[in-house]
Amino acid sequence: MLTTDNSVSAAEVAYIAGVTDKDINRLVDDHVLPHALWWRDRGRRFAPLTAPFATFYFDASGDLTRAARIRVIATLTSRLRERPDFDEFLSLSDRLADIEFDWSVSQASITVFLATFVKDAAQRAARVTEAARHIVEDSEILGGAPCFAGTRVPIANVLAATEGGMPIDDLLAAYPFLTRELIEDAAIFAKARPRAGRPRRLDDVTPELKLVRSKVVRPARADA
User: Fold this and answer.
1) CATH number of the domain encompassing residue 184
2) How far apart are CA 49 and CA 10, in angstroms?
3) Tally of domains within the chain
4) Do 44 and 152 have their domain in common?
5) Contact 90, 101 (CB under 8 A)
6) Residue 159 above 50 pLDDT?
7) DSSP SS3 for 212
8) Distance, CA of 83 to CA of 89 (rounded, Å)
9) What are phi and psi of 200, to 5 degrees?
10) Is 36 helix (H, G, I), strand (E, B) or coil?
11) CA separation for the pair 125, 92 (Å, rounded)
12) Residue 115 near residue 103 (C-beta atoms within 8 A)
């Protein structure tokens, strides 16, 4: 059964699937996803199992008709719902590698195999979970901005520095706790679990830094 505990946002499913969140929402709007894989709770929530189905649906668009792809997803979902361990599959549990299940669906003279899609998605989902262990969102710390665990350093600051071209070695020197692995964790977390609303400004997360002057320079008008 899909619940708050084993569901994720469209953005997180999209990251795991390697598609966009718009693609994930299209699967609902176009009636591709069985209702067992998504629900509404102040927005749409999805089973992580949606990810391999989404990857399959878009990757196979050149080989299978829309109806055939929907049939594959519906068949596998129906087959899974009969299992007592359905929740393990919904959440892409790391135990799936040890659970025997037939991920193939035959239609006419074609057999479709989704095992590889599921394996890849489970690995990406596990990587998101691992990254989240090193990052906290606490309303008592910088208003809930995602920070590296045990610090008051927002991941946005580090990511902005890397995107701005700051050498990794300089970042590691500036933040002694930081490692290359933590920087990768921050990048994964930001993509999989983006914050709602506008991006936070530097003076939002670091109040001691204030803009002291704002000046607009207009181009000179050409001589008449």
Assistant:
1) 1.10.10.10
2) 12
3) 2
4) no
5) no
6) yes
7) coil
8) 9
9) -75, 135
10) helix
11) 7
12) yes
Q: Which alpha helices (DSSP H) does 133-179 contain, by range?
A: 155-163, 168-174
pLDDT per position as a tens digit, 161-218: 999 999 999 999 999 999 999 999 999 999 999 986 544 444 444 443 343 343 444 4
Place of tokens 């792809």: 69
- Examine the fold and report which residue of 129, 164, 193 is the final residue of a domain before the chain moves on: 129
* 212 located within any domain: no
pLDDT digits (tens, 9 = 90+) for 72-118: 999 999 999 999 999 999 999 988 888 999 999 998 889 999 999 99
DSSP state, 15? H
Show the tokens assigned to 158: 């580090």
* Whole-number Å distance between alpha carbons of 124 and 13: 10
Q: Residues 19, 105: one domain?
A: yes
Q: 191, 198, 136, 135: which is closest to 163 by C-alpha? A: 191
